Every structure is written in C-alpha cells, then in structure tokens.
Amino acid sequence: MRTHIFAFTLSIFLCAIARAELKWEQTAVELHPAPGDKEAVGHFKYQNTGSQPVRFKSVHTSCGCTAAQSQKEEVPPGEKGEITATFKIGDRTGTQVKSVTVQTDDPVNATTVLTLKAVIPQELEINPTFVFWGQGEALKPKSIVVRASKDFPVKQLRVTSSSPDFQTKVEQTGNGQFKIDIQPRDTSWNMAATLTIQPEGSTKTFSAMARVTNAAAIQ
Amino acid sequence: MRQALILAALALLPGIGEAIYFRDNVSWQSPIPASEMVTVVQARAWDGNAIWVDARPDAEFERDHVPGAVPLNEDSWNELLPQFLAAWSPEKRVVVYCSSQSCNASREVARRLRDEARLKNVFVLQGGWEEWLKSRK
After folding, report:
1. A58 by DSSP, 3-state: which?
2. How many domains would you assign to chain A?
C-alpha cells in the first residue's frame, strides 16, 4: 500500500516539474475599429512558462468571418508568441463577439478559448430598413426613422429614391432623429425602389428598401 | 476498488470547481427560442411557400447551396439585402441556414431580418447546411 502511495505521489510530482504550460497574457480582447475599417485584428500573446515544448494541434474560429493564425507550430520552453485573429467587419453592426479555440498538447490546459470582441461604430440607426405595401393597399405613406449616433452628429439627411414610383419626404424630429415618409405612386402593381440615405457632409451612404408586393398583405 | 473510487472522486473535484467558477460564462440555453427554429423536414414540407436564405460566405454559396436559395450574409449585407427583398413575399416563410449547428451566421441574419427589416415568419434551420446535405442523401 505504501509503495502505491509513494509511486502515485512521485508521478504527480514528476508531472508537475516536467510540465508544459502556455500562459496567455490575455484571453479576451476588445477592439474598437474606426468607421470604414474593413477588418479588426486582435493579438493574443502567450509564453511557454513550462519546461516542455508545447505543440499547437488546432486553431479554430467560431465564424467564417474570423481567421486565426498561429506564428509557430511548436513553442519551446520560455519562448513567446502570439495568435492573430482577423475579424472581417463587412456590413456587420453593433457588438460582435467571436471566439477562437486553441488546442495544444499541453495536458493541463489542452483547450483555450480566446474571445475577440469588436464594437463596430454605427453612424446611423435605420428602423425599419424595409417598408412595403400589399397590392391594392391604401396609398398612405409609411415611415422610416433614422437616428444619428451621438459620436456622429448629423444636421441634414439627403434621401434619394432609385425609382420615381416612390416619393420621399424627410423631416427632422429633433435629438439627431429624422423621419422619412415614403409613398408609392400606385399600389396596383409590383414595384420596388432602393432609398439611398446620406448624411450631409459625409461620403458614406446607407440604404433602405421600399416595395409594393404582389400579395394583398398589410405591414 | 476503494482506491479507484477515491481516485475517481479526486479527479472529479477540479471539474466541479471549474463548472462552479465558470458557471456564468457557459451558455446552457440556445439564444433562439424553439419557435424560431425549424427542422429540415418541416422546412421541406413548406415546399414553395418558403424562401431559403444562405447566410454562409459567398464562396461557400457559390460552391453549392439549397436549390433556389438566395445569398444573404453580413459580409455583403447592404448589397445582398435588396436582392433578397425583391424575391421576398409576405405570405412566404423565410428559412435561414449557415454551415452547421455550431455556426452563428444564420441566427444573426435572421435577427437582422426580424429587427431591422421587420419581417415576420423568419426561421433558423436546425443543423444548417450539414443537416440539409444529410437529408439529401
């Protein structure tokens, strides 16, 4: 019995001193990309503080929009490195949280989940981005509310319709908020328009859609 | 036998400790209510009364997709949304899918269609493209 206990204790002790250990500087990164940025890059730094080399088995991301790369396949004892996670912003809005799962041959911390949080600035909040009329529906205007962010104050909005079948009227309702009234010329046939919304003095445009559908539905 | 049980109990302790420590970081529930999810069998039964929306990246859509599906992903949301809305009709259900059960793109696309475009009857396909492929075999 004593021999067993001794062997057990010794094996734990040996494992402890000959361990491989990847210490992460941080496992969560928050990024604040500027308006117009195409991507946001997070760096997750690590160091092997153990006495054995650590080998990366896999690096997986939670989303096709994020690519993660490890600088090296194996990290010798004492060496530092980083995993780079590149998040493609595209037309995403708001706060985006993506994870990167790193698997190593470290028996103690085989799996580490890294979190990349990107807070994407939103210049304009458009609600709703789509208005529609059913076929034969009363010719009444429908509204879209546009709210400017505090960080991007807007004095005037310019709205253009891609089709003369839809007319628009912009009204400032205060507190950086605007109301766009959209009216179709006719609701007896299927038609659509893209509304281009542009804040005064900005080159960036936003869009909304208006449509008369061929179904007799009311929004 | 007794020693084995003691060892097993000792091995369980760190697991229990971790579960308690990280209890707030683990999502135990799906963020989408069951009523907003749909199985492949249910969605297929809707037949012509559904619009399939492919929320995967463009390259994956181009490789293969559900017949008749419309691409709509957040990489090119502003460009693809008008195309989708032109195909949309109020009486049709919208079925959004991405690669698999673990992907989140279909949930985000469905959320934006509900919240931003205020569309009704928007569903997320359980198991996504992987599940659809299985049903095709």
Report:
1. strand
2. 2
